[in-house]
Write a structure and sequence with these properties.
Length: 531
């Protein structure tokens, strides 16, 4: 009981103190609330609605993100279709070049020869077409007519055939040749040999008698003019003749005689066959006539459409081969495709190149872009062509202009955060800006720059009869103003209206400034370190 009596006064004192603190706090709160309402409500007669000042939409940055400056375009240059020895390299890293400047050269000896050969082939093709189109000369026509006449006469002779007398004579010659050949093979008959032997013996006897008579008067000085001398000479000749006839009758035919006889038979056969024309000879003669007629017709009528077309195709093919040869020759001189700065040179004079080898890289150091990643909650606020302000760490005293040039529609995720790549094109750069690839930069994508665009609290917009309105406080009264709603930014919405102006108060309320995070006042969408 003693303890209970002690605690009762203490509790009473604490309750009294709490009541005093609560009464003072309540008064302060009521006073502060009244003051706040007085500041936000304006002078409307007992109006209970709060108001908020509208702001230009372009004054608030929508999204900021960090990244590293990159080259917008880089040219990897090399020899594409030809191979050869590099004779000269005209640049080195850091050199500034203009479009068309020579960078390196290959040995052109074989390529120039190929061009010359192609030029000659084209000249030949054109000359052939010119010859086709050129009218024939009188001499060419006369020659064609003569050839046709000769072919027709030859055909007529073959068609007419030989006379009966010519055929009889040819057959007789063949028979005689064959008989002579058979006589050579058969040799002399017994009667012919006997006759030749008898003749030889008779001539021998006559020769002996003449010799005896001659010997009896051989002492005479005029022996040469005597009858006996003449008889001896005549008997000697007769004996030699009989001896030769006997030898011929008794010896076999020689190989030369047999070959000569066979040749005589062959010649007789050819002559006889020549008089009897075959069907093949007639067909050949007819073909010669047709060919001569066609040749003469071509001379007189000129080339056909098919012949002209073939000649023109030959010219086109030769022209294509020349164009290819010229292209290959042009490839031997590597030139800058655009203005820029040489980044790397990976070849040297004397080196053998291969097709597809990257020899030189080139880029325009004033054509730069900034790739950044924007969170999924902010990507809807980014649009192509949207103006961007770029701040570069290495150049803290300068800012640069840019615009959104590309939005990659495929997301990437890192540590559970979904981002989209956005490419910022840097504008109006010059070498004097000293902006280089790789520098760290922050891109701030500017707000809606539409004319007469304003940021108003989202809860200030009311719908009436299918249209959107905001209530603007003017002279203590709320006036309804028609607006066109656009994108939303949290508690704020971008609207467009010609009737709104800077400083207007609209009926509504917000918990934070547009475009800011109440936690740290950093712009929404910022993906880099706090700046």
């Amino acid at each position: 009981m003693k303890n209970k009596k002690i605690w009762i006064p203490i509790v009473i004192i604490l309750l009294a103190g709490a009541a005093f603190y609560f009464r003072n706090s309540l008064a302060t709160a009521v006073s502060g609330g009244a003051e706040t309402r007085a500041q936000t409500q304006g002078t409307a007669e007992g109006a209970a609605d709060s108001t908020v000042a509208i702001r230009p939409a372009a004054d608030v940055a929508q999204v900021s993100a960090a990244g590293n400056i990159a080259l917008a375009h880089k040219y990897s240059l090399g020899i594409e279709t030809v191979e050869g020895i590099i004779t000269e390299v005209d640049v080195q890293p850091g050199d500034k070049v203009s479009a068309g400047d020579l960078l390196l050269t290959l040995d052109k000896t074989k390529l120039e020869q190929a061009v010359r050969y192609a030029e000659l082939a084209l000249d030949v093709a054109k000359n052939q077409l010119d010859q086709l189109q050129e009218p024939p000369s009188p001499a060419e026509v006369a020659s064609g007519q003569a050839n046709l006449l000769a072919a027709k006469e030859n055909l007529a002779d073959l068609q007419q055939g030989p006379s009966a007398a010519e055929l009889d004579a040819a057959e007789a010659a063949l028979n005689a040749a064959e008989a002579s050949y058979q006589d050579l093979l058969d040799g002399s008959s017994e009667s012919e040999i006997t006759e030749a032997s008898a003749g030889l013996q008779k001539a021998f006897i006559t020769l002996e008698q003449a010799q005896d008579a001659y010997n009896k008067i051989a002492y005479r000085g005029d022996i040469g003019s005597t009858q006996q001398a003449m008889d001896l000479q005549s008997a000697t000749i007769d004996y030699d003749t009989a001896k030769a006839a006997f030898d011929i009758a008794t010896e076999d035919a020689s190989d030369a005689d047999i070959k000569a006889a066979l040749k005589t038979i062959k010649d007789a056969q050819v002559q006889l066959e020549g008089l009897n024309a075959t069907r093949a000879e007639l067909a050949n003669a007819e073909a010669q006539v047709a060919s001569a007629e066609a040749t003469l017709a071509t001379l007189l009528e000129g080339p056909t459409e098919a012949e002209l077309g073939a000649a023109q195709l030959n010219i086109q093919q030769a022209q294509l081969e020349l164009d290819n040869a010229l292209d290959d020759l042009d490839q031997a001189s590597l030139r800058a495709p655009a203005d820029g700065t040489i980044l790397t040179v990976d070849v040297e004079a004397g080196q053998q190149t291969t097709s597809g080898l990257t020899a030189i890289t080139l880029a325009d150091l004033t054509d730069l872009e900034l790739p950044v990643y924007v969170a999924e909650v902010d990507i809807s606020q980014v649009e192509l062509g949207q103006p961007v302000t770029v701040a570069i760490d290495a150049l803290p005293d300068k800012t640069f202009n840019g615009k959104v040039s590309r939005i990659v529609p495929i997301s990437s995720s890192e540590s559970g955060v979904v981002n989209y790549e956005v490419m910022i094109q840097l504008l109006d750069l010059t070498p004097q800006n000293k902006v280089l690839p790789g520098m760290t930069a922050v891109a701030t994508m500017q707000g809606d720059s539409t004319e007469n665009a304003w940021l108003v609290p989202s809860n200030a917009i009311v719908e009436f009869e299918g249209k959107s309105y905001v209530r603007v406080m003017q002279n203590g009264e709320a006036r309804r103003v028609a607006v066109t709603s656009s994108s939303s930014q949290g508690e704020w919405t971008v609207v467009q209206s010609d009737e709104l102006k800077a400083g207007d108060q609209v009926v509504g309320h917000v918990a934070s400034f547009a475009g800011e995070d109440s936690g740290n006042n950093r712009p929404r969408g910022f993906l880099g370190p706090p700046r």
